[in-house]
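Entry, Tuesday afternoon. Goal for today is a structural model of the target with zinc ion bound, before we commit to ordering more compound. Inputs were pasted exactly as handed over by J.K., no edits. I checked the ligand SMILES twice against the vendor sheet because last time a stereocentre got dropped in transcription.
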Amino acid sequence: MNNKEVKRVLQDAERHCSENGAKLTAKRKLVLESLLDSDKALSAYELADYCRVECGSEMLPMSVYRMLDFLASEGLVHRLKTTNKFIACSHISCDHEHQAWQFLICQSCDKVEEVDLEKSIVSKITDAIHEVGFRIAGSQLELEGVCADCSAP
Ligand SMILES: [Zn+2]
Ligand SMILES: [Zn+2]
Ligand SMILES: [Zn+2]
């Protein structure tokens, strides 16, 4: 994502928060900006490092974690359960509603791609799961593999 795009997405994120009566403070914005800058998923520790190195802003991983919590509750970032890392939502500037989330995690370069799945596909999966008497918590799918860049010869 280039600078201009990042700026636009940050503006949309700000508007999104104020519509919900929340505030995207300067530090929360910085954390979101760092995630938008990176195409890899980052942990709270890596983000704290990133903010220190790139922006000279000292933040404890604990407070980065709290900011990530806020951003996740606003739907601006997603937490990957398999790796406990975070990525910026790739639909912040979209008007359409999120369907189910599927994340493709590259094991070779750590890049994460967010793909929208159709509701009908997801309900087929959940139906099959319910059939064996299992109840799933949430509808977030995470698949690990190798991305197009890394698998190119
Ligand atoms: Zn998203
Ligand atoms: Zn979208
Ligand atoms: Zn890769």
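Residues 91, 94, 96 surround zinc ion (ligand 2) (CB under 6 Å).
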